[in-house]
Design goal:
globular, 11 strands, Rossmann fold, five-stranded parallel β-sheet, Elongation Factor Tu (Ef-tu), domain 3, alpha/beta, about 260 residues, six-stranded antiparallel β-sheet
């Protein structure tokens, strides 16, 4: 291997959430690869006609896995005409996938001061970064309450739903839920399919008309709530504008903010 900026890893498991559209990959992890929950890695593949050559096509994917896990896990949507995702979706256990040695990104819990509530708002595969945070015990220790809102089109796209709903059963997280039974509020929202207990509406619409606050049973107060946004550009633009009008802003010049944003597209 001529380029020391990356390592060659092996796919160990492939999980299909929606055939031809959504999948998760698990792969081996280089012992030297360290990251913070919420960061992303650049994954690489060789050119289509040279499968055994050095990787030349790279894409960014947030880690789903927590920093302490032995494996790396990634969640992806398949872009049919894309150069990378259809090939990644075709990988099988034993196949190679390349990972740059350096992680990237600043959508991490340490962006905020400890305490108060953390609202994690995601559309589609923007959920990825939040899963890493939710699997990491220090996130639960850092905030009094966590709300996860996941906006999709159809219910079948609510990947990881069973895991999220059963986080309280994990031995490493159970103590936090025992102390605070309402520690997590998970709100799945579908725009094209009615779900029990949630409106069939866009996430940003619920944010704009106040229904999100009612559903989460918490006032959108910039003094006590920190918000992360991760998803498609349209959702981010609308949500940022709405939140800015409510007093939310990213940190600057060493002053901790109450809003962090990452474009997941």
């Amino acid at each position: 291997m001529t380029d020391s900026k990356y390592t060659r890893q092996t796919v160990t498991d492939v999980r299909t959430w929606v055939p031809g559209k959504l999948l998760s990959l698990r792969l081996t992890r280089d012992p030297g690869f360290e990251f913070l929950p919420g960061q992303f890695a650049r994954l690489g593949l060789p050119a289509q006609d040279t499968p055994d050559a050095e990787p030349t096509i790279w894409r960014a994917y947030s880690m789903v896995s927590a920093p302490a896990e032995d494996a790396l896990e990634f969640y992806s949507i398949v872009v049919p005409q894309g150069e990378f995702s259809p090939r990644m979706a075709a990988l099988q256990p034993g196949d190679a996938l390349y990972v740059e040695k350096k992680p990237f990104g600043f959508l991490t819990p340490d962006r905020f001061e400890p305490g108060g509530s953390l609202w994690l708002l995601a559309s589609g595969t923007g959920l990825s970064a939040y899963l890493s945070m939710l699997r990491e015990p220090s996130t639960w220790q850092r905030f009094d309450r966590i709300a996860l809102v996941h906006g999709v089109r159809h219910a079948e796209e609510l990947a990881y739903r069973e895991e999220i709903e059963n986080l309280y059963r994990r031995p490493d997280l159970a103590p936090y839920f025992a102390q605070h039974p309402g520690k997590l509020r998970y709100l799945p929202v579908a725009t094209r399919q009615a779900l029990p207990g949630t409106p069939q509406e866009r996430l940003t619409t619920l944010l704009a008309d106040g229904r999100l606050e009612s559903l989460l049973d918490e006032k959108l107060d910039p003094a006590s709530v920190k918000i992360m946004l991760c998803g498609n550009p349209a959702m981010l633009a609308d949500a940022r504008k709405l939140l800015s009008e409510r007093g939310f802003a990213p940190g600057r010049r060493g002053i901790p903010g109450n809003l962090a944003v990452e474009n997941y597209w």
